[in-house]
Amino acid sequence: MQSNAPTVPFPAAPASRKRLAVVLLNLGGPDKPESIRPFLVNLFTDPAILRVPGFIRPLLGRLIAYRRTKPATENYAILGGKSPLLELTIAQGEALEAVLNTDGDVEAKCFVAMRYWHPMSDETAAAVKAWGAEEVLLLPLYPQFSTTTTGSSAIAWEKAAKRAGLVAPTTTLCCFHSFPDFSAATARQVREAWDKARAELDPAIPLRVLFSAHGLPETIVEAGDPYQWQVEQTVERVVERLDLPGLDHVVCYQSRVTPQKWISPSTEVELERAAHDKVAVLVVPIAFTAEHSETLVELDVEYREEAEKLGVPGYFRAPAQNSDPGFIAALAALVRHARRQDRPLCSFAGPRQCPNRFGDCSHVLLRNVNTGGRAKVPA
Ligand SMILES: C=CC1=C(C)c2cc3[nH]c(cc4nc(cc5[nH]c(cc1n2)c(C)c5CCC(=O)O)C(CCC(=O)O)=C4C)c(C)c3C=C
Ligand SMILES: [Fe+2]
Ligand SMILES: [Fe+2]
């Protein structure tokens, strides 16, 4: 894992080992209380998030950010005034880099490019160039593709790479919602959390799994965003591997922050239903791969309190992946597949096509942004 600001020239790589920069894409979070407002301004002025005519966006985005600052500040105060996301992402990068460098054919280095707070794409693209990358792989830490997350980050990276003069061939991975190694690693963590919850809970009380994903405004899904469909796919694959026949489970959506209609059911409504049905819940974050405010505050504090108030007879939470070795091994497998470009990583099926802007990638996620080359489509 390389700091984004190299101060000394890097030594040349041995001739046979290509320099592969793996750029981990994530959303980012404030590093101190004063960063909360500008972080929110960056987020709400992104056209992928605030879909209004361009001339209104700067003003409206700032207004929404201004109104969101107080609740966000209260949330981050619980976490010491900052988001843990960068530290956790750096740790994921270090772990991934160690695994990738056991391969003989590459010299891999992981970088982090956050979308709305530092290090952002411009700094990272400059660092990747300074390191002398011969190949770049953009690896989103979002399992499911959304135009609001991976799509937005990929667009930001493309512009930043141009500004930095980074010309190394670049591959973008759009998603890994159904990637078997990812499903298996996630299922292992969920199963462990299930067994622990079951051991603590009165055997007479049923336990329901709430797979809780970040929500999206309905209009974004209606416009073709595959996120919700991919979340459902992830849940199906994970449940298949849990080996808990007849498991009572549901997919629900958290973190609504705008007044529009968001996709449903909400996690709050599912807590009400659990209270009504007198079942305990195991909440599993299914669209975040690292802990941050929406898991550590929303799930662990707010929803837990709400569940208690509603009389839900038990509240348990499975951890996000963070640097779980199984998850890191799955990321390494994804990187290897992506480099070989010989396997379909996207199971976005049928006539619907993955609307990521790097092409009509039905079944194929990868495209070489700089050269226009396509991944091979398997027969
Ligand atoms: C319209 C607003 C938002 C959409 C759409 C949205 C989509 C989306 N976000 C994530 C993952 C994360 N979101 C995070 C923070 C965050 N997100 C929004 C708004 C939207 N997100 C806000 C306003 C914030 C800031 C925090 C807050 O005010 O509550 C984070 C990082 C948080 C941290 O602690 O670091 C992540 C990660 C996904 C997966 C997603 C859609 C698929
Ligand atoms: Fe978000
Ligand atoms: Fe796709």
Tell me the layout of helices and strands.
Elements: E1 18-26, H1 36-44, H2 57-78, H3 85-100, E2 106-114, H4 121-131, E3 135-140, H5 147-164, E4 170-172, H6 180-200, E5 207-214, H7 218-222, H8 227-242, E6 249-254, H9 267-277, E7 280-285, H10 293-310, E8 315-317, H11 325-340
Parallel strand pairs: 1-2, 1-3, 3-4, 5-6, 5-7, 7-8
Bound molecules: ligand L6N33NVT and fe (ii) ion (2 copies).
One fe (ii) ion is lined by residues 214, 255.
Mean model confidence by pLDDT? 87
Structural class: alpha/beta
- Stretches where pLDDT is under 50 for at least 5 consecutive residues are 5-9, 347-379
Listed once per kind, the bound small molecules are: ligand L6N33NVT, fe (ii) ion
Strand content: 5-15%
Distance between the termini: 37 Å
Number of domains: 2
- Kindly state the percentage of residues in helix: 40-55%
For this structure, what is the CATH class of the largest domain?
Answer: Alpha Beta
Per the CATH scheme, the topology name of the largest domain is: Rossmann fold
Could you give the count of β-strands?
Answer: 8
Global geometry: globular
Number of helices: 11
- The helix/strand order is EHHHEHEHEHEHHEHEHEH
Going across the biggest sheet, name each strand in turn. Answer: 2-1-3-4
Largest sheet: 4 strands, parallel
Gross CATH architecture of the largest domain: 3-Layer(aba) Sandwich
Protein name: Ferrochelatase
Keywords: Cytoplasm, Heme biosynthesis, Iron, Lyase, Metal-binding, Porphyrin biosynthesis
Enzyme class: lyase
GO molecular function: lyase activity
